[in-house]
Design a protein that fits this description.
This protein is mainly alpha-helical and about 220 residues long. About 75% of the residues lie in helices and about 0% in strands. It is built from nine helices and no strands. The protein starts with 6 loop residues before the first helix and ends in a 7-residue tail after the last helix.
């Protein structure tokens, strides 16, 4: 399908109100100025570690489904080398706290389940569902890095998501989704945008749930 506007431009505009709301979250505002309680940050990291394990499987699933060899290699790279950087950063913060018997919070489980459900959707939709985890984190990381001080206790987290290498991976993933959308039907392209917006909302929920130290009520 030929179009004069990139799918990624349409998707980002559709998700922009949610992204703007993300920047207003107390979790990110306090992370930026270094006042976020460490208890909430560690809770978040432990949930994020669970999410990342599942995310690797989703990336590998996409790699097995896309037709273009270059796209396959890219998603395998994300699942292996790219996520390794995040896991290393997790370990830096979590090591002093020792192992924890952590189960997924309701929001973490919801997000993982939403992404897992896309395995039966067209691969274009599945790819769009993982893109906010790249794009939103990069944009939020840049936003925070612009004002954060060098002695911020969360400097390693900020550096991870504002690093130029993360920018390269993010742009590559955007370009792949645009290439997939270019050949997709209008219906599949619409579903790609819908799931992109939904996943962006999940990102808002994930940080918000960490700030609240979300627990199962039963």
């Amino acid at each position: 399908m030929s179009t004069t506007k990139k799918w990624s431009d349409e998707a980002w505009q559709a998700a922009l109100p949610t992204y703007n709301a993300i920047l207003e979250l107390p979790f990110l505002k306090e992370l930026a100025d270094g006042t976020l309680p460490m208890e909430k940050f560690i809770f978040y990291l432990r949930q994020d570690a669970i999410y990342i394990e599942n995310y690797c499987k989703v990336l590998a699933s996409i790699a097995s489904r896309v037709a273009d060899k270059a796209h396959t290699e890219a998603f395998l790279h994300y699942a292996l080398d790219g996520v390794f950087v995040e896991k290393t950063m997790h370990e830096t913060y979590l090591a002093p706290y020792g192992p924890a018997d952590t189960e997924p919070s309701p929001t973490c489980l919801l997000y993982m389940s939403m992404q897992g459900a896309q395995a039966t959707a067209p691969v274009e939709v599945q790819a769009a569902a993982i893109l906010p985890c790249f794009w939103v984190y990069l944009m939020a990381g840049r936003h925070i890095a612009a004002t954060a001080t060098a002695d911020n206790p969360f400097a390693a987290w900020i550096a991870t998501y504002s690093d130029p290498s993360f920018d390269v991976s993010n742009q590559q993933c955007i370009d792949i989704c645009d290439a997939l959308a270019e050949k997709a039907s209008p219906e599949v392209r619409r579903r790609m945008t819908e799931v992109f917006v939904l996943a962006t909302k999940m990102e808002w929920m994930f940080w918000n749930s960490a700030y609240k130290l979300e627990q199962w009520e039963i």
